[in-house]
Amino acid sequence: MAQLKARLKAAILISGRGSNMQALIEACAQPGYPAEIVLVLANRADAAGIEFARRAGIATKIIPHKDFPDRESFEKALDQAIRDAGAELVCNAGFMRLFTPWFVRVWHNRQINIHPSLLPAFPGLHTHERAIEAGVRFTGCTVHFVREIMDSGPIIAQAAVPVLPGDDADILAARVLAAEHRLYPLALRLVAEGRAHVDGERVEFTAPVGTADAAILNPTN
Ligand code: GRF
Questions:
Q1: How many contiguous H segments (helices) and E segments (strands) does the chain have?
Q2: What residues are labeled active site?
Q3: 85: exposed, middle or buried (C-beta count within 10 Å: 0-12, 13-18, 19+)?
Q4: pLDDT tens across 29-83, in order?
Q5: Ligand 1 center to residue 18 CA distance, Å?
Q6: Are 74 and 41 in contact (CB under 8 A)?
Q7: Nearest residue (CA) to ligand 1, atom 10
């Protein structure tokens, strides 16, 4: 009998809306998808995404950062909850807390993040305002392994979207967000299948990416 391959267990960290979390949960519900979400963790009780996760039957936990005297003790609690859930990978999805070097080291190459720009351009906040201000013709989104410097780290996948005349930050954000919802599930799949390897702080793929992957990894669509 064919052996079923174990799916990678992932935890998602959110602070708010959770639309990327939702895209990951929906991808994981597809037959044959190589990852499963074992925990959605929020640092705010009012994170809207928590309700969606609960309704999807996913374990959720709220660990308010405000309940802790410092970042270290907050992160120890996060780390414990992630381990208790059996997660092997952490997916940041709009998680609005900076990590200490300790947490980043503990989850080295096992923590990924999505950022709404084509890194290394426009790390940090207000990416869409800054992209419009800079006059770039393309922006997009990036999924990368997390490193100590915010929004840096080996790039797993990117998708580009055009910046069009008349765009304001909200219009551009919506166009980028639609690309994020396609990109994050693809990137998680590449990691969960063990195909994305960090080599000298660049991600190399051990097996050729398929046509469907290439369509989104290649920023011309
Ligand atoms: C996304 O644009 C993500 O790239 C950024 O924060 C936003 C979170 O949105 N890190 P959502 O909570 O996933 O809807």
A1: 7, 9
A2: 115
A3: middle
A4: 999 999 999 999 999 999 999 999 999 999 999 999 999 999 999 999 999 999 9
A5: 7
A6: no
A7: 94
